[in-house]
Amino acid sequence: MPIHLDVFHPNRIVVIVARGAISSEDITKAVTDFIANGAIHYRKIIDVTGANAEMDMTRLETIIATLRAAPVPTRGPLAFVVDPARNAWARKFVEMTAEDRPVKAFNS
Chain centroid to CA 57: how far? Predict the structure, then answer.
C-alpha cells in the first residue's frame, strides 16, 4: 500500500506517510482507516513529500465532507509535510479546512 498509517493511541497521534504514486481512492481509504480507529480527534502528521497524487476538486471536497461528518466533538490538529513542487491538493486541503481546526503545511 502506498500509504502507511500508524495510530499511537497512548500519545493520541496519527502518522501517515505516503510514497510513490497514490490515488484518490488510497487517500480516501487512509481517511476511513483513521476515522475507524477512533483517531480523528488525535494530532496528525501527514508526509506526502515522497508521493505523487492527482486530486480533483470534487474528490477533495468529498474527503473533506467525510471528515466533517465524523461524529466527534473536535478534530485534532493536522500538519502536512509537502514538496512545494508536487501535490498542490494538500495545500488546497489546508486552505479549505483551516476553519475546522489548527492545520498547516510545511516543506520539511
Answer: 15
For residue 103, give the nearest of 26, 63, 52, 46 by alpha carbon.
46
Give residue-wise pLDDT tens across range 21-64: 998 888 888 888 878 888 888 999 999 999 988 788 898 899 89
Q: What is the pTM of this model?
A: 0.88
Q: CA neighbours within 13 Å on the CB side: how many for 37? A: 21
**514538496: which residue's cell?**
83
67: cell is 471528515
DSSP for 52-107, written as a single string: EE---HHHHHHHHHHHHHSS-S----EEEE--TTS-HHHHHHHHHHTTTS-EEEE-
